[in-house]
Structure formats: structure tokens, C-alpha cells
Amino acid sequence: MLAVRGLRKSFGGRTVLDGFDLRVEPGEFVALLGPNGSGKSTALRCVVGLETPDGGEIDVSGNAAMVFQKIHLVGRRTALDNVCSGALGRLPLRRSLFCPHDVRDEAMRCLDRVGLADRALDRCARLSGGQQQRVAIARALCQRASVILADEPVSALDPQAAVQVMELLVDLAGEGMTVVAVLHQPELARNYAHRIVEMVAQ
Amino acid sequence: MTLAPSQSNTMRTVPRRRWPSAAVWVTVAVILAVHVLAWQATEFSPAALIAGWEGMADFLAESLPPDLSVLGKSLEAAVITLYIGLLGTTFSIPSALVLALLASRATTSAAWAQQAARAVLSFLRSVPDVVFALIFVTAVGLGPFAGVLALVFHNTGVMGKLWAEAMDESDRGPRDALRVTGASGPQIALHAVLPTVLPSLAGLLLYRLDVNVRSSLVLGLVGAGGIGFLINQSIKLFRFDEMVTHILVVLLLVVVVDQASALVRKRLGA
After folding, report:
1. B-chain residues within 8 Å CB-CB of A93?
2. A151, A137: one domain
3. What is the ipTM of this complex?
4. What is the pLDDT of residues A37-83, one digit of tens each?
5. Termini Cα distance of chain B
6. Among all residues of chain B, which has the CA nearest to that of A88?
7. How far apart are CA A46 and CA A196, in angstroms?
8. Is B8 a domain residue?
9. In chain A, whose CA is at the least distance from the CA of B194?
10. What confidence tens digit (pLDDT) does each residue in A110-150 have?
């Protein structure tokens, strides 16, 4: 479950969010639509702590993970290594130098969940954009997230890859996860999301 | 799209050439003045060079042909020089890495830690390796060991700064992504920053190896062993023919190290 109440954020006097409310239940897939500057990304970044909100309440049950438009994997490392790094938050430093066996097992299951178990040992830079985005989702799963926030997850992908990623996100919501995705294509939102939230520029 | 001509005819006149402003003239005058002062302070005198050409001719006459009987000794010493440069570079890796991680804003968020690490790096960088060598010669005596120590200290400063800059320039995205997973600063450095910048760090390391081998020549001149020491001895004994042999070996050494490091760096793509 994700609940945001009265979220406010401004950058250097420019107000981006002014009392934003959002409530998403487990199993629900919500799409955020809106023009540039309407604070869609900022809202998600506040939830995961990449931005500090000026005010408002954020309530997340469980673990929130984020998926980015630019994917942000370490291209030189293997898909498996990148997925393992999702577990860093619950590993002490001394166990995180090399990925422990149990985490590798778990990461492998996450990769299998996104259909990329056979590419586990490929460097991410060698995967296609759609495959990379699915590895990023596997990383979120390895984080044992119950909430997935996706910031334009398919804007950089070709149409087929975009459909694959959207179907994956819908499936994850179907399994009980809370999914929020910023989208720029209204037709994708209508086809896949359970609910659409329109945001307006301040 | 077509561009319409300007409406008024007066706009058609060619703009007049603008002369440089007063600030430009003042800057030029200051630069000239500094060069005049430098000319005087360094006793720069082409006339002295022309007048003394005989001394140089004698020197060249004495130094040719090179005395190749010292070639074996010379090559041995060149290998020592190479070893000084190698150990000086390798042994500075741990200290340079720790200081670079502390100095880079990609891996350290505490401003005081960044400032402290940068201050240490600046200090090590600003003391020339020759000065470090002279200091260590007083502690461990003449010889290659003093040269290695000198290089370790100076190279930590230079390489640490270059590495910190490489880390600063690394993409912010993967760091943010790991921060969201709850990873700590050291974990982010280990799993996002270092894997990304490793090729650049390796390239810079090889570049420093190249520079350090050349520096260890100069260190030899102040008593830190290797082929520089032999050059110094030959000059003191007026054996210029030996010296030329040593210099030819140096040339060979520098070219080989330079080419080898360029080749490896190219393979690394850094």
C-alpha cells in the first residue's frame, strides 16, 4: 500500500508539487499522466527518498523500489550482479563484498521471473533496452519490494519491448504488488493501468 | 522557410571592425612585462650559448663514439629504474584508492572528509618526488629503496586526485538506483562507482607507471639508484662516452614503456 498526503516540493522557488495526494492499494496498477513539470517524477523520487519533500506525509507499507527511464544498471556488470545489488540494503557491509550464495539463488529466481535467467551472466551493456529494463525490475524484486515505482519505464524502449515491460508490471500488480508508473503514452496507460491519475503543471 | 531581407536599408551597411578593448591591451602588456622580467631573472642569453659553442663541441667530441663496454651494466641499471617505477606505482594503489574514495563527491557525502582527503592529496602532489627522495635518502640511505618510497608518496597524491576526478564524472544514475535499495555509502562505492570507473582507473594507473619510470631516472640523479645514478657518476668522472650509452638505454626504456602502456590502455578502451 502507498499513501501520499499533501505532498509539497519546490525547487528554487518553482513549485512542482503543491498538496499532492495519492493512495494505491496492493494489487493495483496506477498510471500517472501529465505534462512535463507536473511533478510526476518528483513525487516518485520523494517516496523513495531521492528527494526530500518540503511537506506532506508519505506512508509505504513494506519496501519501495524504483525503476528508471534511463534504467541505471551498471553496464559493465552481469545481469545477475545487478540483480544481487537489490539486496544490498539488507546485507551488512562485510557480507556485501561478494554476493552471498543465498542472495544469488534469490537473484536467479528474480531473473527467472522476468524471463531472463538465460542471460544471467551477460554484461548488462550487451542486453537490449527492454531486457535491461526487465533486469532493473528483477533488481526491484530482489529488493523484496512490495511497492514498485516506475518513472517512465518504457519511454526509451521500442513498442514490442514496451509492451513486454507493461505486461510484466501488470502481472506483478496481479500478484499483489502496488505499482505506480509515470507514463507519457495515454494509450499504454488505458490498456494496462487499473486507474489513471492526471497531474497538472503548477 | 525563406528569410526576408531586412526592412530598412541602413541595416545593410557592413558592421565596422571593432578594435580590442582596453582590457585586452592591458592583459597583453602585463603578459609582455612578465616575460621581460623572466628573461632577466633567468639570465637568458643566446649570445652566451653561441660564445660557448666550443665547450659543447668538445663535450660532443668526447662523448662520441659511445662506450658500449658499459652496456651490460647500463641495462642492469635500467631494469632497476623500471623496478623503482613499478613498485612506486603499485605500492601507491591502496593509499591512492582510499584517499580518492574519500575525496570524490560520488563516494563521500561528508564535506569535511572530502576536504581533508583533498588537502592530503594536494600536499602529497605539491611536494616533488625529488624532494621526497632527498628526505628518504637521509632515512634509508642512498639506493633504490629511497626512490620507491619517494614515488609512493608523490604518486599517491597525483593518482589519488586523477582517480577522484574519474569517480566524480561517473554516471549518477546507478548510484541513485542503489541508494533506493537501501545500500550504504561504502556499498554504493563498491557496487556502482568502482565497477563503472575501473577501466578509467586502470588507464590512469598505466599512464602514471609510464610517468613514474621516467621520474625514477631523475631520482637516480639524486642518489636513488638505477640508471640515473650511473649517468650522474659518468658526468662526475667526465666519462661522457659512457654517459651517451646510458642515455641511449634510457631512450630505449622510455620508448618501450611508453609503447607498452599505450597499447594496454588502447585495449582497455580508456
Report:
1. 184, 186-187
2. no
3. 0.91
4. 888 999 999 999 999 999 989 999 889 999 999 999 999 999 999 99
5. 45
6. B183
7. 20
8. no
9. A74
10. 999 999 999 999 999 999 999 999 999 999 999 999 999 99
